[in-house]
Amino acid sequence: MVLLYVIFIVYILAVNFYAVMLVRAQRDEYTENDGKGKTGDGKLILTAILGGAISIYVSMFIMRYRLKNLLLMIIMPVIAVLNVYFAVLAFRSGFTFFVVA
């Protein structure tokens, strides 16, 4: 059981690290091309759904990048709340929904 907790924590940390690096890479590409970089929202939203919404939202404010994008400013907090809810639900249930008989 402890192994599932460790795997889940490492997964969340890895996704959040990737999310910060993704925002940083998109910002760097945007600044290198004088605002003409092709930065899509798809990768950010997919990473947020996989568990990195909080780090994307925080890193967007820290790096002051894509703050005027209304879609990201609305959807990231919503996905972050869902991520936290599902994480709490998983820890409270003891990951019993993963057990295969």
What keywords describe this structure?
101 residues; 76% helix; mainly alpha
Protein architecture, described:
- With 101 residues, the protein is mainly alpha-helical.
- The protein is 76% helix and 0% strand.
- It has three helices and no strands.
- The radius of gyration is 16 Å and the shape is elongated.
- The two termini are 15 Å apart.
- The mean pLDDT is 90.
Number of DSSP helical runs: 3
**CA(first)-CA(last) distance:** 15 Å
Q: Would you count the extended β strands for me? A: 0
Fraction of residues in helix: over 70%
Uncertain segments: none
Give a nutshell description of this structure:
By secondary structure, this protein is mostly helical.
Topology readout:
Blueprint: H1 2-32, H2 42-63, H3 70-93
